[in-house]
Amino acid sequence: MPRSTSARTPGITGSLLVALAACLSPAAAQDAPAGRGAGNQLARETSPYLLQHADDPVDWRPWGPEAFAKAKAEDKPIFLSIGYRACYWCHVMHRECFRDPEIARMLNAGFVCIKVDREERPDVDQVYMTALQAFSTGGWPMSMFLLPDGRPFYGGTYHPAHAKEGFTGFDTVLKGIAKSWREERPEMERAADGLTQIVRRKLGDGRPRRRAPLPTSLVADGLAALAERFDPEYGGFGYNRDNPRRPKFPEPVNLAFLIDQHRRGPAKRAGRDDPLAMALTTLDAMARGGIRDQLGGGYHRYATDRYWGSPHFEKMLYDNAQLASALVRAFETTADPRWKAEAEATFAFVARSLTAAEGGFFSSIDAESEAGEGAYYVWTRSEARKVVGDDPDAEAFLQVYGLKREPNFEGGRYVLTEPRARAEQAEALGLSAAELARRLEGPRAKLLAARGRRPAPACDDKVLTAWNGLMIAAYAEGGRVLKDASYLRAAEKAADFALERLREPSGRLLRTYRGGSAKLPAYLEDYAFLVHGLLRLHQAGGDPKRLEQARTLADRMIADFGDDAEGGFFFTADDHETLLARSKGPLDDALPSANAVAALDLLALHRATGEARYLDLAGRTLDAFSSFLTQDPASMPTMLTALAEYQDLRPTPPGGQP
């Protein structure tokens, strides 16, 4: 999601700011060669995001030593563009800027240009997003400017080619930086020094961190803090009445924590808000909202409103994997068949749209098609009426899915939602809930078939180890709880695929696979999430092979990523490429914290094997992040879940008092 860049950057002098913001002399562009237009070095990549830029007139290069050597040899700043295939605003900036001959001439003349897929290189994305957030709200596409040694000095997100609607034109930014590069190099160096220090301080500078006690009450404190962020009317978290247009994200890490807290019983809640009610209220609102694909199943990335009505239409594997798990747990907890049906619809979407023939799972589906953002999913009332035709259940369908109300999307169109609970709709129509559900099947099938004839959004068909681990876990849990052998078979096939195609002969994992080629060293999340999936598969099927596979990978994770001095795990392995900082973060985001999942893996291995070393390592991981946990526990629900499990096994937590 784009954000306009702040006009004031810490460490950059006033004269440099003027140079960056003003419409300066176009001298830098006058000597630029024409855009190439015949392809660039991205043509040799496998990432669909990088390949879509392979015939840009910009002389893109992949991240690597060759690009940095060129920048140093030619004494040029680096323009680093980071995004991902499903990112709508990445597509917009691609069309408006990177296909523009004038912009391409300016970039090719004054910069060495590097393009990065953030999903392939989350380590690079993490470093430069931290720099960007020092003076701006973050987002993608990320547009960063670096010294030839990789230190950042300026950045932003989306820019149009030329100024419009409050956005600074990219041509203005490029001219300003080119002029400053010639005339104010010392100021740029100081800005880079300042931002680099911020990155190292936030991501980790190698110094020991302060420890804090972890009392048994901390999990309940985290639950209470999360409850304060809960929207009691429409579910979800982070609603702010002073900023009601703030987007809403599913945040499945919160749902997993809340359901786990309910499982632990009322005594653990100490009279706080009901965690199950918060989880189910959120699942209900999302399941009836536009964030849920009411025809095809699965969930979009986020909603642009408080009511979950209008989504940002990209679909991500990791969201659907985590939400499928949450829905399975909701059914396991409540026995309400509604959650079983919702989980099954999500699994059906993944099977239909995100599953490779070889067994792995694709990464995402774009927000836009040829007809524009969301066009694949939305309807006018007349379109919907024409498709359902004289179906006797057409009027019921139109009422249930909000098509008799005012349009809820631009251009007089509708995102299908269920504005009223299904039971209320059934009562209003004089039907039982079961009879209404049956009557909706025919019109829904007709619309889904008609939608299938529209130009479809593109799929990013690369397979990422970490995200596949989450989906393997979801399918395994679905097979165990829903008693569906097909889900276990899907988990088994994906696990075999990952272990055969995304692992080197040495046993080390690789990050990404596409078109028969696997590459890039894996990160902590790849190990932690795949181990998590294998352990869930072992729990569901009982195959000792899966436990041994999980144990082998966990031992490799400990050896390659573990911080022997301070506890916890680094995001990159010991022999990984050196970046500005080597992070070791505990916070959950769209993905659960890799350190927290690693701690849960270690606890599960201890329970399965009886080996005390796994329990000890889990305790050291929790202790390493104790100061974070005590400062803002609601931002770390997965780590809180690990802490609760650890306290079950050792009532006196690491560094704390009972």
UniProtKB/TrEMBL annotation:
- Its transmembrane ranges are none
The entry's keywords: Signal
**Which PROSITE patterns does UniProt cross-reference here?**
PROKAR_LIPOPROTEIN (PS51257)
Q: Which residues form the Spermatogenesis-associated protein 20-like TRX domain?
A: 40-197
Top-level lineage group: Bacteria
Q: Which residues form the signal peptide?
A: 1-29
Listed Gene3D superfamilies: 1.50.10.10, Glutaredoxin
Which is one Pfam family of this protein? Thioredox_DsbH
Task: Name the InterPro entries for this protein.
Answer: 6-hairpin_glycosidase_sf, 6hp_glycosidase-like_sf, Ssp411, Ssp411-like_TRX, Thioredoxin-like_sf
Name assigned to this protein: Thioredoxin domain-containing protein
